[in-house]
Write a structure and sequence with these properties.
The chain has about 280 residues and is α/β, with parallel strands linked by helices. The chain is about 35% helix and about 25% strand. A hairpin with a 2-residue loop joins strand 1 and strand 2. The chain binds adenosine-5'-triphosphate (ATP).
């Protein structure tokens, strides 16, 4: 029997291919400290699922990495560069290397799908209208939308189509990292499963690194290579689903072995504590 080792930032000795490295991060609002010295590594080419109780700061961490929320202390390195020392121009270059899918999809309601996808391209690249149309068509195809979705407005789309359109927009600049904030929330289980499959396929075909905030156990089982769990401002554990299942941390036990989790796990997926799949 092997007892899986759960590291606090998922970084094993000798593994250093972290595309994002967060160290001793402190973030707060007024008197409330949300991140209390958090360490986390996101490794190149993985889908890292980020879980934790509501209101613990999963979105805050994402927004802090993206530079949308200021940190009080600690370091954030992206592609090996400390984001604190970046010039405005360098920061802009960095921002082109990631795509973000916020929780509500956040498409501009007054723009068609095509125009939404072209927004980041118009902002960062100088392309002819013909190329803009061609690239938007490619992204629409990439996320599994029909070509006629291009000229539709968000109000004419189903929830699943909105997620796909927003995903297409987050892929507009051919990013290396994708940040997804609860991408399957609001989708029915079949739609959510299809979206997870799409993200896994895109990760493989485009070589993406994906950071996915999620409450969706199905996504953790089927799409994520590793999982990091947040609790009380720190990472309480990071590892594979098998390692999470084997943990005896109270929150992880109730999350991964609770009623909802039991309904989900098939005998092939359920792993008794203390065992890891070979
Ligand atoms: N701009 C802000 N100003 C003040 N407090 C904030 C701000 N943004 C987030 N918070 C607080 O930080 C805490 C963490 O919020 P966050 O949205 O990151 O939680 P979460 O873990 O993503 O929750 P959920 O799973 O419900 O989406 C919450 O208490 C929230 O109210």
């Amino acid at each position: 029997m092997t007892t899986p080792h759960l590291s606090l930032n998922g970084q094993e000795p000798g593994q250093s291919d972290a595309i994002i490295r967060v160290r001793d991060l402190v973030v707060g609002f007024g008197h409330r400290t949300v991140m209390k010295g958090l360490d986390l590594d996101i490794r190149r080419g993985e889908i890292l699922g980020f879980v934790g109780p509501s209101g613990q700061g999963k979105s805050v961490l994402t927004r802090t990495i993206l530079g949308l929320v200021p940190k009080r202390s600690g370091t954030i390195e992206i592609f090996g560069e400390d984001v604190d020392g970046l010039t405005v121009a360098r920061r802009r270059q960095l921002e082109q290397r990631w795509g973000v899918l916020f929780q509500q999809g956040a498409l501009f309601s007054g723009l068609t799908v095509k125009q939404n996808i072209q927004m980041p391209m118009r902002e960062h690249l100088k392309l002819s209208e013909r190329l803009l149309d061609e690239f938007a068509r490619l992204k629409i195809e990439m996320v599994g939308l029909k070509p006629d979705a291009a000229d539709k407005y968000p109000s004419e789309l189903s929830g699943g189509m909105i997620k796909r359109a927003a995903l297409a927009r987050s892929l507009a600049l051919d990013p290396e990292i994708l940040f997804l904030d609860e991408p399957t929330s609001g989708l029915d289980p079949i739609g959510a499963g299809e979206f997870d499959d799409l993200v896994s396929t895109l990760k493989k075909t485009l070589g993406l690194t994906v950071f996915m905030v999620t409450h969706d156990l199905d996504s953790l089982y089927t799409a994520c290579d590793r999982i990091a769990a947040l609790g009380d401002g720190r990472i309480i554990a990071a590892g594979t689903i098998e390692e999470m299942l084997a943990s005896d941390h109270p929150w992880l036990r109730s999350y991964f072995h609770g009623k909802r989790a039991r309904a989900l796990t098939t005998p092939a997926q359920a792993v008794p504590p203390g065992y890891a799949h070979a």
